[in-house]
Specification:
conserved putative lor/sdh protein from methanococcus maripaludis s2 fold, Helix Hairpins, 4 helices, single chain, six-stranded antiparallel beta barrel, elongated
Length: 399
């Protein structure tokens, strides 16, 4: 019995040893295959980092407001007997919008006019009698006061009639009607909104550090995501003398032409304040940049031989005595061109381009598309047949 157990243990050990040997051979074969593996070259599109001269500008987000804008409301209570406008129409200053019932006031006006006529006649007669000393000065003064009171009553009734005829206070575009024919209008009930749309104000804020670069009359450019392709200019008309204590921003107001009335109060727009100084910048396409939390980078396309010489120099300069070089990565396909990942600092963006403030030199060749799938040291094949046309102010046809 003991011999059988010993034989079984020996057999089990032999089986484990055979399996371990087979697995070791498999791992050795995989390591050898990995060392011989050649990473395929990646086909890329390229562009050259080039210098350009850009207009200097200050960017901000603004809100459009009407030069004049009110909600027309009724001053006095009364029944609406006529509505003289169409919603959304253009009206001129003084046009009648709503007429209220003034029948009672018209009747009172006739009586007040008759009273004025009577007091005037009485005053003329008392004036002659005063000259002949038939009446006293006090009687004449009483007649004069009665005449003035009667005229004041007429003026009051006429003012009431005028207030019940609601007119446009200025030329502008009407909004949606908020009253109906026959409705009893109360004091301060809204009738319709009225906005003057041409020209129009744009209000925006800039940091206090940029206050010295602002002045009245300075040119601005306005664009809006709500109206693709819209780009219009205006001028700064006012700078608030008070700096906001919470945000440390200065409020600025500019006036822009709006003849087609495409811009409406309440819209937000992008504002660029033009500065007289032009700046020289180094630009690459935005699609060339690989954005990462630890830093933005681009891929340079360099000569493979030069890259190996550079790596050798760097390894020699950084070599520590007694320290062996680390394992090398898999060999690359020999195409003559390899990719080098270069970290950069970015600046302003305009259209398809972005400014590189450091990390890149003019004339260096960078990959323009598909950088998310590339690796440092990877071989590259350049093919620019389908390379996009990058522009500072693109105008896509499918806008």
């Amino acid at each position: 019995m003991k011999k059988r157990i010993i034989y079984a243990i020996i057999l089990l050990v032999l089986v484990i040893a055979v399996l371990a040997g087979i697995k070791a051979l498999q791992i050795k074969a995989m390591i050898a295959g990995g060392k011989k593996f050649v990473m395929p070259a990646e086909t890329v599109t390229t562009t050259t980092a080039h210098s350009d001269s850009w207009d200097s500008s200050l960017s901000a987000v603004g809100t459009l407001t009407a030069v004049q804008g009110v909600t027309v409301a009724g001053e006095l209570a009364g029944k609406i007997v006529n509505i003289g406008f169409q919603p959304g129409s253009l009206v001129k200053k003084g046009d009648i919008l709503v007429a209220q019932d003034v029948a009672a006031e018209q009747a009172q006006l006739q009586g007040a006019l008759a009273q004025v006529q009577l007091t005037r006649s009485t005053l003329e007669r008392d004036k002659k009698m005063l000259a002949e000393r038939i009446i006293s000065q006090a009687d004449y003064d009483t007649a004069l006061a009665q005449k003035e009171q009667a005229e004041a009553q007429v003026a009051n009734i006429r003012a009431t009639i005028a207030k019940k005829t609601i007119r446009a206070p200025f030329t502008g575009r009407l909004g949606i009607r908020q009253v109906n024919l026959g409705q009893m209008l109360r004091e301060n009930d809204p009738v319709v909104t009225l906005q003057s749309l041409n020209p129009i104000f744009v209000d925006f804020a800039l940091p206090q550090q940029q206050l010295g670069q602002l002045k009245v009359g300075q040119t601005i450019r306005v664009t809006s995501d709500a109206i693709p392709g819209l780009s219009t200019t205006g001028r700064i008309s006012a700078i608030n003398p008070l700096i906001d204590a919470d945000t440390r921003n200065v409020k600025v107001q500019a006036t822009i032409e709006n003849a087609l009335e495409r811009l409406r109060p309440g819209m937000f727009v992008n504002v660029a304040v033009g500065l007289p100084v032009r700046q020289k910048v180094l630009t690459v396409p935005t699609t060339s940049v690989l954005y990462n939390p630890y830093g933005d980078s681009v891929f340079l396309v360099v000569d493979a031989k030069e890259e190996k010489e550079l790596e050798a120099k760097e390894a020699k300069a950084s070599k520590v005595p007694g320290k062996q070089p680390g394992p090398q990565g898999p060999p690359q396909a020999q195409t003559g061109k390899v990719l080098r990942q270069q970290f950069v600092r970015l600046g302003e963006k305009r259209g398809d381009l972005v400014v590189v403030t450091s990390g890149l030199k003019e004339g260096e060749v960078v990959v323009s598309t598909g950088v998310f799938k590339l690796h440092n040291g990877q071989s590259a094949i350049i093919d620019n047949k389908l390379a996009p046309n990058f522009q500072k102010a693109p105008k896509p046809e499918n806008n």
